[in-house]
Amino acid sequence: MTIVNRLLALVFGLALAAAAGVAIIEMVTALTGNAGIVPREQWASALAELRWDDPTLVGVAIGLVLIGLALLSGELTPARPGQFALQGATDAAASIDRRGLQERLRHVALRDADVVAADVRIRRRAKVRASVPPDTDRRACRQRVLDATTSAIDELGLIRPPTVRAEIVRARERVR
After folding, report:
1. Element of type H or E holding 139
2. Please, which contacts does 154-158 make with residues 24 or more away whose CB atoms are closer than 8 Å?
3. What pLDDT does 46 receive?
4. How many Å apart are CA 152 and CA 162, to the nearest integer?
5. Spacing of C-alpha 165 from chain mean position
6. Angstrom distance (rounded) from CA 69 to CA 84
7. CB 102 within 8 A of CB 120
8. Cross-strand partners of 86
9. Taking Cα atoms as reference points, which of 109, 82, 110 lies closest to residue 96?
10. Neighbouring residues of 37: CB distance < 8 A, sequence distance ≥ 6
11. Do 129 and 119 touch, CB atoms closer than 8 A?
12. Which is it for strands 164-170 and 126-132: parallel, antiparallel or unpaired?
């Protein structure tokens, strides 16, 4: 469960708990004959005067539909993979986790002689960002890093390998 889902569930749960608390208070006050905390007569008369084509009602309905569509699209978008399944495991499921693959690809990119620093992020694709000194041919280095990381993924034998994108940026100074 992602952090956004947890926060939405918390807000929804708190709203339901508050509504349940108000409903219990209203039931107890109605049974004892006292006035409740919600002005029911005022709300009933205000709602009786509303029509279906009232601009406020239409605006609230459109807002609720848009919020519902946003929540639905957030739930239907695929999450980034946590594990990448490996081929060749006959009697047991074998996999590598996302962070392990990121670290492996970072080390592969750092093997290049011109790469000073590297950072790898895997979401739907594997994005390798490598820093090189200013006097380096960035196109040739990009191709070398791209070939090395792609072959490292191929060596692992992932069932659904991510596509690799490489970005080469200039470093301020050479660290090695």
Report:
1. helix 138-156
2. 156/84, 156/86, 156/96, 156/101, 156/104, 157/86, 157/87, 157/88, 158/84, 158/85, 158/86, 158/87, 158/96
3. 86
4. 12
5. 20
6. 30
7. yes
8. 158
9. 82
10. 22, 25, 26, 29
11. yes
12. parallel
Residue 163, classed as helix, strand or coil, is coil
Dig out the tokens for 55 from the structure: 């601009």
- Residue positions counted in the chain: 176
Which residues are CB-contacts of 87 (< 8 A; sequence separation ≥ 6)? 157, 158, 159
- Tell me the residue type at 165: R
In the chain (176 residues long), the average pLDDT of successive 10-residue segments reads: 74 90 90 84 86 89 86 76 74 79 93 91 89 88 93 88 90 61
74 near 91, Cβ under 8 Å? no
Q: Which two tokens stand for residue 144?
A: 């070398």
